[in-house]
Amino acid sequence: MKSAQDYLPTCHWLMKSEPDVFSIDDLIRVGVEPWNGVRNYQARNFMRDHMKVGHEVLFYHSNTEVPGIVGTARVVREAEPDDTAWDPASPYFDAKSSRDLPRWWCVRLGHGNRFSQTVALATLRADERLSEMLVVRPGQRLSVQPVSEAEFARVLELASAPY
DNA sequence: GCCAACGTTGGC
DNA sequence: GCCAACGTTGGC
User: Which tens digit of pLDDT belongs to each residue from A13-52?
Assistant: First the structure.
């Protein structure tokens, strides 16, 4: 079974967001958004060390009625320090991050695109070709995770498949 | 709201 | 370095 590291290098990713906090429609509306607030080291490392401009992203809605992939986005700027960590008023404040030694980093996403139909987590789970995909693995909670080119292409197929 | 699976923290 | 306690994630 492949681990997350085994997917590297890759130019395809999956990023989770709670739609109540920031949805695919929010991204489409604002155009470009810094992916701040990530407070997990593995997810940070993927953003800081591996995500490059032009990389493609599956946009996943978590903690919602029908969790699943709702669209795509693209990396439009490489990682910069996450300045919400320095803001005491921010829910993402972290006193251990400083301007001199930033602990948290974030890329910027743009080119938000909503699928005509959501590819539900249940659909991903039911698809034989996606059985290795990290997001369907039990207990796997990474909010930024690498995706293989084949998995990415398969999700696009499912997003446009007739029911 | 429940809870399992993880990650982090901190005492020792 | 171990590990118990605690906090978070996220499906259900």
Answer: 999 999 999 999 999 999 999 999 999 999 999 999 999 9
Question: Regarding beta strands A56-61 and A12-17, do their DSSP bridges make them parallel or antiparallel, or are they unpaired?
Answer: parallel
Strand B: which residues have Cβ below 7 Å from it? A 40-42, 96, 138-141
Nucleic chain C contacts, protein chain A, residues 121-150, CB cut-off 7 A: 121-122, 141-143
CB atoms within 10 A of CB A163: 3
pLDDT of residue A29: 98
**CA-based angle A119:A121:A125, to the nearest 5?**
110
- Where does residue A111 fall: left (phi above 0), alpha (psi -120 to 50 degrees), or beta otherwise? left
The full length of chain A comes to 163
Among A1-5, A82-86, A99-103, A147-151, name the most confident range.
A147-151
CA-CA distance, A125 to A117, in Å (whole number)? 16
Helix (H) or strand (E) holding A43: helix A41-45
Residue found by looking up tokens 């910027």 in the block: A108
- A60: nearest nucleotide, CA–C1' criterion: C10
Protein-proximal nucleotides of chain C (any atom < 7 Å from a CB): 8-12
